[in-house]
């Protein structure tokens, strides 16, 4: 049942609002001042708080802020006397859902309550989805190598610094980029991913910067590029070592001037984008061979995070394998299977040329083809590395 709390120091106001809301079928709680209201909000899940602005001990504005700091999703409808309209407007700027004047108009109040309930549900669903996504992209491991990666992510994420993520294929470079974005101040804005190795060289500039109608034969309409799509957010340039030199020059200009020009266009478009790049190549070697611009390398590598291969953190394999067992069980809506100790030791001894991605594929194969207890013979048969 939907729970609503009324926070007001006037007994008659609380009584009148309680009668109205209980008649509508809501579960109603009360608090006589801001401190009591804050205590109850911290200890229970209220969809909506009808909160007076002027109260003893803790005013409505301060209560609103403290509830937000406590991480509560409760939607506040501020109750105000006529002379406090300016304060009520200030409350909405600080996150209150709405405000109503005393004495409240019944129809307007109920409409506001219903809308606030819908907002609470939407916020809660969004938070749950973000929690699940964050869990999916969680970096798993207790090895020294992965701890260093996690520490680097935690330090760099809140900044605006550009990051270059290096490491072999399948080691988790994309995961690091998503962690950096998810822990940054841009987390609520887009993370736009571009696989530079998957886009033909003649199309990479159009993909990154967009094009104008008629710019080339198949350009039948204007197209917005990835940099504009990522505006105010983050762009992740995966496998940047495979980008053409001409595209590198345009990326360098975008980083220097925070401007891009669409293919076939003349107008400069301002962009505010944080760039995270990744590569499995040795870019310094690529620079010596003339395949990568040194000035772009230095623009991208303000912070370098190296993701080690799985063979350099074998102690993390049991943690990763057990996480994959749980994830796959969730996907298949089945019980979680177990890899027996001897089988797990054998997994730790394999070469893992495909790194974490290969391990995930092997665990999924074992889940599909083996019984509830995955033994050594199962792993030797199905791991593909006998």
Automatic annotation (TrEMBL):
Which keywords annotate this record?
ATP-binding, Nucleotide-binding, Phosphoprotein
List the SMART domains hit by this protein, alphabetically. AAA, REC
Which residue range or ranges hold the Response regulatory domain? Answer: 3-117
- The residue ranges of the Sigma-54 factor interaction domain are 139-368
Pfam families for the chain: AAA_lid_14, Response_reg, Sigma54_activat
Q: Which SUPFAM superfamilies match?
A: CheY-like (SSF52172), P-loop containing nucleoside triphosphate hydrolases (SSF52540)
Q: Name one GO biological process term.
A: phosphorelay signal transduction system
Which GO MF terms does the UniProt record name?
Answer: ATP binding
Q: Which residues carry this modification: 4-aspartylphosphate?
A: 52
Q: Which PANTHER family match?
A: TRANSCRIPTIONAL REGULATOR (NTRC FAMILY), TRANSCRIPTIONAL REGULATORY PROTEIN
The protein, known as = Response regulator
Organism of this sequence:
Salmonirosea aquatica
